[in-house]
Design a protein that fits this description.
With about 130 residues, this protein is an alpha+beta fold. It is about 30% helix and about 15% strand. Strands 2-1-3 form a three-stranded antiparallel sheet. The longest helix has 13 residues.
Length: about 130
């Protein structure tokens, strides 16, 4: 809390026109300035994608995590594999997307009977 003399000094400065903003601050109903929108759109994460390559497009040798996880967003099934085991089974140059699809292949619990719709919808993660 400011002291009484500090409050008098602040009031005197405000009365003299010093330290008073030239424009009023933006309110909830005011339009945001153009600089705000341009900075927001220039942001790397504005499109929702994380910076850098997505994990599903990396080769197994390029992934730094030790445990790889693929889950089905349709049936909720989760399959995990250690990176060392994945390299031993599929090779160092295998792409994680292909390995994950093979791990989930023909295991989706949601079946419709139509070939186009059956199968898992993978989501790739690393731990």
């Amino acid at each position: 809390m400011p002291t009484g003399s500090q409050l008098k000094k602040i009031a005197a400065e405000a009365g003299a026109g010093r330290n008073v903003p030239a424009t009023r601050p933006l309110g909830p109903r005011d339009d945001l300035p153009e600089e705000y929108w341009s900075a927001l759109l220039k942001d790397a994460a504005a499109d929702g994608a994380p910076p850098g390559p997505q994990i599903r497009t990396l080769r197994l040798s390029e992934i730094s995590w030790h445990v790889l996880r693929v889950s089905c967003t349709r049936c909720g099934r989760i399959v995990e594999i250690q990176k060392a085991d994945a390299i031993r089974l599929y090779g160092r140059q295998a792409i994680w997307k292909n390995v994950g699809m093979r791990m989930l292949e023909d295991t989706c619990q949601q079946r419709t009977g139509r070939y186009e719709e059956d199968g898992c919808w993978p989501s790739y993660d690393a731990c």
